[in-house]
Amino acid sequence: MPERLKGNATIILNFRKHSFSLTVLLMRFGCILLIVTILIPISSCKKKDSSGQVKQASFRINNVSKTFTSSTGFDRICSFSTYCNGFYQDENVTDKSMFYIGLPANARNGIIYTQADAGFSVYYLDENGNKYEIMTHSPFTLTVTTWEGNDGWTTGTFHGILYYINRTGGQDSVVVTEGSYQSSITYLTN
What we know:
Layout: H1 3-43, E1 56-61, E2 64-69, E3 83-88, E4 98-103, E5 112-114, E6 121-125, E7 131-133, E8 140-147, E9 153-165, E10 171-184
Antiparallel strand pairs: 1-2, 1-10, 3-4, 4-6, 5-8, 6-7, 8-9, 9-10
């Protein structure tokens, strides 16, 4: 082989050697990218906000444990309260299996609300859609443990009795114990 072509043959052999390494590297990177693309959506199935905390309410109704989640957090789109949030067993079903908390404008760390406080509301929709709610005579207490304000986080505990009044005027009640909630806060309006 002429001297001048020997150099070119070495370049071609070196190119093939590096080309093979580059191909292997790209294949490995592609596999890693595929795995990451699959795992990210799977790992984010729980209702978490940007801080990684799960928005949920856990409680016992007549001694049966319940845990409902929320995708929205407390906001200011409420009828009778200043801040409100609905926690659902299934967020695609909003007319049953739901726990609602409404808080007055003075929400802050350490405050305790009872059924007598204006702007405070709680109700529970059972699996049949029956609405159990606080009434003026019902003993119900909610304590705000943490209130960080707009774009912050809130936690609290609650317990008491919620009442359902049926169409014939009869009354039923459920006992709520070991209640706790944690959720984000978002002021959508001022």
